[in-house]
Amino acid sequence: MKSQKKEITFTEGPVFSSLILFAIPVLGALILQAAYGAVDLLVVGKFGDASSISAVGTGSSFMQMLTFVITSLAMGSTVIIGQHIGESKPKAAGDAVGTTIILFAVLGIIITIVLELSAGAIVNILQVPAESVDKAILYIRICSGGILIIIAYNVISGILRGVGNANLPLLFVGIACVVNIIGDLLFVGVFHMDVAGAALATVFAQLVSVIASLGVLRKQEMPISFSRSQCRIYKNELKKILNVGVPIALQEAMVQVSFLVVNSIINHMGLMPSAGYGVAQKIVSFIMLVPSSAMQSVSAFVAQNIGAGQKERAWKGFSTAVVTGCSVGVLIFLLGFFGGARLSSLFTNDPEVVLQSAAYLKGFSVDCILTCILFSSIGYFNGRGISIPTMIQGISSAFCIRIPVSIFMSRLPNTSLTLVGLATPITTVYGIIFFIICFAWLKKKEQHGL
Predict the structure, then answer these.
(1) Do 346 and 42 form a contact (C-beta atoms < 8 A)?
(2) What is the pLDDT of residues 34-75, one digit of tens each?
(3) Which residue among 102, 198, 283, 450 is least crowded, i.e. fewest CB within 10 A of its CB?
(4) How far is residue 242's CA from residue 254's CA, in Å, rounded to a whole number?
């Protein structure tokens, strides 16, 4: 099928403009996607109390973790489809799409059943404050009912980004965000459904987005050869997708689990630190969007260029992303460090919760710069289909650095969320050092023709 202008060809033309034209709609989509939980928390914070804030903060953090893992697994499809596009193999790209659809449909059913049965256990593990337990369980159970919808959106977005189209995912998530805002104001503000209303608004918004995306895609031409008959498992494509996607998903899962452990540690510190951390995490979810968009853009860019045999251009894309991301990261660092209280006050009127949130952001904010280097490195290795280093880095940093440092900081005399927040940039420094070693290993391997 013929490609339309909405698909970006990464294998030719200026590197910077190709990345920016792709990264901007990716960033826009990530901003709007992060707005799901943020809008929930903002509306609940205005109409509810600290127990509701804590419940939505913890519950949405867990659902965000799950979404990140799903997105990471879908990255395997993005990379493989991108490589097939670079190789000029539209039929193979279509086979990868069909395999992806069946794989994630089965996965979605399994996850839905597991979460509905284990919501109470999850909340207990997270050590949610007693005042928030029932609300957190309700939030997770309602959102779990929409897992298939969440998966459908992320699979569609992953496929589109693999062919170089980041504009349609932005459109789809934009629709969902508008519906979510209306739903939150209606269910929480008007009907006073509190946590349940926020969760229902989120699921309904995602459903509307998926329905809209399917309608648009029926009329959209893409540079792949795909038909309904290809909706089955192709063993070769499945193997390729899982070889790339599973290590990435494992890495993301362990990173997100480590953040949940940190959440649990902070929950143990009391209701106000828990609520403050919940607010801070919503702000962090926005701050982290620049490096996240860089990672996804680098992955797609590198995948197409590796498929086309252009290793030097792939490396240039990575280095361009690092410089650009860090430049923006400096500005975000200043905003997070000096404007934490102002940002936090958007989500709650409680001065103590604002104070706790701002304290965490002070310790965390330097990570805005460092993570642009780390995430671009992850994107490069993922795009090359070498995702084992990503997995090793993610698991080792989560359990050997982030969790132990967070526990240590939380137990210091007169500790604060600022000290706990420092655990994240310390972990990122380790990750950067890890990938510097990996780049040296990869260079030596290529020099020896291995």
Answers:
(1) yes
(2) 666 677 878 888 888 888 888 888 888 788 778 878 888 888
(3) 450
(4) 17
Could you count the other beta carbons within 10 Å of the beta carbon of residue 396? 16
Q: What percent of the chain has pLDDT over 70?
A: 97
Helices and strands, counts by H and E, the chain: 18, 0
At 214, which amino acid appears? L
- Could you tell me which of 221, 214, 150, 225 has the C-alpha nearest to residue 180? 150
- Where does the pLDDT of residue 272 fall: very low under 50, low under 70, confident under 90, or very high at 90 and above? confident
Closest CA to 225 of 59, 108, 98, 72: 98
- Give dist(CA 279, CA 270) in Å, integer: 15
Distance CA 135, CA 52 (A): 7
Interatomic CA distance for residues 81 and 300, integer angstroms? 9
- Residue 128: other Cβ atoms inside 10 A: 25
- Specify the pLDDT at position 37: 61
Give me 306's structure tokens. Answer: 């590796």
Radius of gyration of the chain (CA): 21
Assign 236 a pLDDT band (cuts: 50, 70, 90).
very high
Domain boundaries, given as residue ranges, for the chain: 15-447
Structure tokens that stand for 226 in this block: 């795909």
